[in-house]
Design brief:
7-stranded mixed β-sheet, single chain, binds S-adenosylmethionine, alpha/beta
Amino acid sequence: MSILDQTPPDVDKLEQLVFRAVEEVGATLNAALVVMGDRLGLYRALAGAGPLTSSELAARTGTAERYVREWLNAQAAGGLVTYHPSERAYSLPPEHAVAFCDEDSPAYLPGLFENALGSVLDSPRITDAARTGAGVGWHEHNQHVHDGCERFFRPGYNANLVAAWLPALDGVVDKLQRGARVADVGCGHGASTILMARAFPRSTFVGSDYHTGSIETARQRAEQAGLDNRVRFEVEPAAAYTGDGYQLVTMFDCLHDMGDPVGAARHVLGTLAPDGTWMIVEPAAGDRVEDNFNPIGRAYYGFSTLLCTPASLSQDVGLALGAQAGEARLREVVTTAGFARFRRAAETPFNFVLEARP
Ligand SMILES: C[S@@+](CC[C@H](N)C(=O)[O-])C[C@H]1O[C@@H](n2cnc3c(N)ncnc32)[C@H](O)[C@@H]1O
């Protein structure tokens, strides 16, 4: 007996599903199209230019008109670009210009799409790994994953880290202003480290990450930022980074990627000053899976399946917290490691800022 014999489908519901699937496929392809528009400078050339024909946009960007026309139609059909039929021209609304062109705006979007594209490109490896439970390490991913991650997170850090997150921690800003020693663990390309170093010139910062390629990029970023020797970057795993007596240890969106977050937490406890603070920035999530059945939860469970869970499974212990672990599970990790105090100090729609103290 087939499933059709058992459960006759509701034809209207089936039709709705098919139409929804068309929208989903359009959105999937748009990850590549947004990265294409970003790379070719199409959004930047459209921003503030008024309506442009595909030929004018191609001429301004040094690209081939036939590709540009098709790209523009895909963007217009998706509502990201406005079409002006009488002129056969296209424009970018001002809000869209901010979201697609202003790297400093918290609404900046290309990084999120680039991270999604990178995740999809590597998905055949994840499909294979899911048969056996093997991991796929952060270091094994294509460059879109690393660059997309930096470009997605940095605008949020620019908007929140110095203005809201650090001030939400007990006494930390005073220490940073007087001059403190800070370890930024799992720092990736070092966006958070460099931002803090700029804001607190009397403090010193060590960014570390187990991924050599990320640390090489972080060193370049620090050089470009003209930061002196108050900032250095080291290739080190979270469970064994060097130094002690830190007034502040930070982890931005990386604790759940680690194989042994409890082991890493124990190491943080051992390297903190007695009155030090561990700031943990993690994706915001409810404690029950059903709390996260919303657009943000959907995207994060997607990233978690393709990036975070395989990353953790590739390391010793392989706890695989996932990117939607929730505060209760994170509290358990932190207190199991021996921290006495734990609280949610701040939050945004995307992040929890958690404060752990000895
Ligand atoms: C999602 S990225 C976040 C990077 C950076 N903190 C940021 O906010 O842009 C996760 C980072 O955790 C790092 N990571 C994963 N496991 C690690 C470990 N055991 N020790 C140190 N870094 C680790 C990865 O290499 C990657 O750079």
